[in-house]
From TrEMBL:
CDD domains linked: HTH_ARSR
Domain annotation HTH arsR-type: ranges: 26-121
GO terms assigned for molecular function: DNA binding; DNA-binding transcription factor activity
Protein name as annotated: Transcriptional regulator, ArsR family
Pfam families, per the entry: HTH_5 (PF01022)
Length: 137
C-alpha cells in the first residue's frame, strides 16, 4: 500500500471519478458497470476512436474503419462496447451509422481524463488527419 500520494503515477485513474461514473447507473450492478467501463477503455483502438470522436464528430463507421485499418465487423464490435458504456451513441442516417459522444458525456470526468491523456499521443493527431481525408458518401 502506498502511503505517499505523490508516488501515484499521473495517469492513475482517480477512484472518485469511477464512483461518480457508477452513480449514474441504477439498472446494473456496480461490478458489471465497472467491468464494462474498464473493458471499453482497455483497448488502444477504442481509445483511438474516442480520441477522434472528441474532436471530429460525428464519425461514420467508414471513417473509423479507415482510421483503424480494420474490418467493418471489428468496428461494429468496438462501437457496440463503447455504446454499452454510454460513452458513445450511434444514429442511423441513410446507409451510414454515425457515432458521436453525447453532450452530457463530454463534461464527464471520465472523458475529460481520457481527452487530456490522449491529447499527448501522436497517434491521435495522425488519426484526426486520416479522418479528414476520408469522406462518407
Amino acid at each position: 500500500m502506498c502511503k505517499n500520494k505523490k508516488a501515484i503515477p499521473p495517469l492513475f485513474f482517480p477512484f472518485y471519478i469511477i464512483v461518480s461514473y457508477l452513480d449514474n447507473y441504477e439498472s446494473v450492478t456496480t461490478m458489471d458497470t465497472c467491468a464494462t467501463l474498464f473493458k471499453a477503455l482497455s483497448d488502444k483502438n477504442r481509445l483511438r476512436i474516442l480520441g477522434a470522436l472528441l474532436t471530429e464528430e460525428p464519425l461514420c463507421a467508414y471513417h473509423i474503419r479507415a482510421m483503424l485499418n480494420v474490418s467493418g465487423a471489428t468496428v461494429s464490435n468496438h462501437m457496440a462496447l463503447l455504446m454499452e458504456t454510454g460513452l458513445v451513441q450511434g444514429e442511423k442516417k441513410g446507409r451510414w451509422m454515425l457515432y458521436h459522444i453525447p453532450e452530457p458525456m463530454k463534461a464527464h470526468p471520465v472523458l475529460i481524463w481520457v481527452a487530456s491523456t490522449l491529447e499527448k499521443e501522436p497517434q491521435i493527431g495522425q488519426d484526426r488527419a486520416m479522418v479528414k481525408k476520408v469522406a462518407c458518401s
